[in-house]
Amino acid sequence: MNRHLLIIEDDPRVADFLSRGLKAEGYTVEVARTGPQGLELARDERVSLVILDLMLPGLNGLDLCQTLRAEGGQVPILMLTAMSTTEDKVKGLRLGADDYLTKPFDFEELLARITALLRRGREQRAVATTLQVADLVLDRERMQVWRADAPLTLTAKELAFLELLMSAPGRLFSRERILANVWGVHVDPLTNIVDVYVRRLRAKIDDGHPLPLLKTVRGLGYRLDDSPV
Predict the structure, then answer these.
(1) What pLDDT, on a 0 to 100 scale, did the predictor assign at position 126?
(2) Which residues form the Response regulatory domain (predicted)?
(3) What is the pTM assigned to this prediction?
(4) pLDDT per 10-residue tile (average), the chain, 229 residues
(5) Residue 221's closest CA among 188, 122, 31, 123?
C-alpha cells in the first residue's frame, strides 16, 4: 500500500508534530511550507494523501485545492482548519476536499481519517478498471483501446503513455513527468522520444476523427481531453 503523505502547513510546530507522529506510524512524509510549493508537490503521482492547512503563504488552501482538482488531480485531501463554521467546511468540501479536521484535533482521530481516506481511494481505484475520454476507451485489465468502438493496436509504451494521460483528463503533463512515469528516467535519453511517441499516439487515436483528443501546450507539455481547442 502506498503510504506517501504530503503535509502542507506553514506553522513549523504543527508541521513538525504531524511529520514526526506520522513517520512513527510508518508513513513516508513530505512537508511543504507554502501554497505554491505544496501545489507542485501534490502533483507528484507518488503522493497518496494530502494534509492541507487553509492559511498558507503564496496560495491559500482553498485555492490550492480548487486548482489541483481543476487540473484533474485525484489525490485525497484532508483539510485542517481553525474555522469551525458549517459554511467554511462546506466550502472546502465543494472545492474538492475529501474530509476536514478542525484545529485543535486529536492525533488518533487524524490517523483514523487518514486510514479511511486511503482505504476509500484504494476501493475507488480498484473499481476504475476502464478509463474513458469522449469516445476513447482504455480497458486497464486487458490493456486494450477503442476509439468510436473501433479497436486500436498500441505498443506497450504507447499504452503506458496513453494510460497516464487518460488517468487525469485535462491535466497537463510535462515532458519530465511523462519520462519519469513511462520510461522511469528523469532526463530524455533520446532527446525527442516524447515527441516521437506523441506523434505515434496522435496518428493512432486522432487521425480520421473530427475531434482531436491529444493536445500540445507549446513549451509546457501535453494533455488529453475532449475540449475543442
Answers:
(1) 52
(2) 4-118
(3) 0.57
(4) 87 94 94 95 91 93 89 87 70 83 89 90 64 90 89 93 90 87 71 89 95 92 88
(5) 188
Q: What angle do CA 138, 141, 142 make, to 5 degrees?
A: 75
Give residue 28's pLDDT: 93
3-state SS track over the chain: CCCEEEEECCCHHHHHHHHHHHHHCCCEEEEECCHHHHHHHHCCCCCCEEEEECCCCCCCHHHHHHHHHHCCCCCCEEEEECCCCHHHHHHHHHCCCCEEEECCCCHHHHHHHHHHHHHHHHHHHHHCCEEEECCEEEECCCCEEEECCEEECCCHHHHHHHHHHHCCCCCCECHHHHHHHHHCCCCCCCCCHHHHHHHHHHHHHCCCCCCCCEEEECCCEEEECCCCC
Q: 211, 204 in Cβ contact below 8 A?
A: no
Evaluate the omega torsion of the peptide bond into residue 104 and state whether it is cis, within 30 degrees of 0. Answer: yes
Quick one: pLDDT at residue 138? Answer: 92
The closest of 128, 117, 163 to 3, measured between CA atoms, is 117
> What are 12's three cell numbers?
513549523
Residues in the chain: 229
CA–CA dist 158, 142 (Å, integer): 14
- The order of strands in the sheet holding 99-102 is 28-32, 4-8, 49-53, 77-81, 99-102
